[in-house]
Amino acid sequence: MGTRAQGGVTPSLSSLSLVDADSAVVPADRDAVASRLRAGSFFWLDIHGPDAEGLALLRDVFGFHPIALEDSEHFGQRPKLDTYDDYVMLVVYGANRDEDDLVEVHCFLSEHYLVTVHHDDCPAFSDLRTRMTSHHLHTDNAAFVLYAVVDALADSFFPLLSEFDDRIDAIEDRVFEAPDDAQLQEIFAIKRTLVSLRKVIAPERDLFARIATGVVEIPGMSPDAERSYRDGYDHLIRTSDLIDSYRDLTSGTMDVYLSTVSNRLNVVMKRLTIVATIFMPLTWITGFFGMNFGRLVLNITGWTAFLTFGLATQVLAVIVMLILFKKQGWI
Questions:
Q1: Model's pTM, two decimal places?
Q2: Are 160 and 302 within one domain?
Q3: Whose CA is closest to 324, among 287, 281, 263, 262?
Q4: How many other CB atoms are there within 10 angstroms of residue 70's CB atom?
Q5: Which of 81, 184, 251, 276 has its CA 20 to 30 A from that of 24?
Q6: Is 243 inside a domain boundary?
């Protein structure tokens, strides 16, 4: 399996899988693809980690536009739809829960084929191919296959978001017990991921709305397919709403963290203030009797005077302050 390109260098190996109109996964190579194009029967070709040979297949066999090929060679596009002569190119996103990362997929759709290109591993496609081969979905309809692909990618966000929900609840519980910097870092990490998800889900949702309402035409669209696209649009709305909800939850968790830390700091300062306040009269008493004036301590002789003035007055001062603190509700 290919890996994602780093620093503009394409992978050295690509993986091709082809689903034909009979919902069968068959071996894919240049000759097999060219043969199916000549036959005119619909098929879905998935290219994982396109190398030079894979890009040459898109250029020479399918004859895609150079701009579209450039986008597929260098990923990092926002969700969009570009219309060409007899095909359209869509950029959509899914989620890889295992790697906690986004999966960018470029889709080339005509009435006779759907070509998907992606660098990252896409578990949603494995499940989709299994459902296609076992349930014989409408793999002869271009628009429906594209809907199935995009819908599978959209549904792949739900397990990741559900995991975020559990993580946020766990962080909140730990914050109430003992807040620390690790929790704050985890909150920021989740929030950054949610922002990244929001950046791709919002334009993808708007794109699906344009397709579902007929503002943008795609090959093979039919009234039945339009109903499917409206359902897919509803899934994207739910995903967008969940992302917004979890962003609010992370903000609330951060507020809880800051409030808890502030309250704990206030408790510490309260205790230190009480200790300092108790020692203030003690310091005054010891300082008063420690002054070098003979008349001040002339008659303070013997253990009785020492215990009375040296200790009893200090103990009495502490007791009086504790009683006052208790009445004020400070302790």
A1: 0.72
A2: no
A3: 281
A4: 10
A5: 81
A6: yes
pLDDT at 300: 63
Q: What is the pLDDT of residue 138?
A: 56
- For the segment 6-27, what is each residue's pLDDT rounded down to a tens digit? 333 333 335 666 665 554 555 5
What's 50's domain CATH number? Answer: 3.30.460.20
Asked if 254 and 187 touch (Cβ cutoff 8 Å), the reply is yes
Which of the residues in the chain have pLDDT under 50?
1-13, 23
**Alpha-carbon distance values, 195 to 35, 173, 188, 190, 325 (Å):** 44, 23, 10, 9, 49
- Is residue 37 a contact partner of residue 149, using CB atoms and an 8 Å limit? no
- Total number of domains in the chain: 2
Based on the fold, state whether residues 237 and 305 are members of the same structural domain. no
| The pLDDT of residue 86 | 86
Beta strands (DSSP E) in the chain are 15-20, 25-26, 43-48, 80-83, 88-96, 101-109, 113-118
pLDDT score for 238: 92
Residue 115 lies in a domain: yes
* DSSP for 144-201, written as a single string: HHHHHHHHHHHHTHHHHHHHHHHHHHHHHHHHHH---HHHHHHHHHHHHHHHHHHHHH
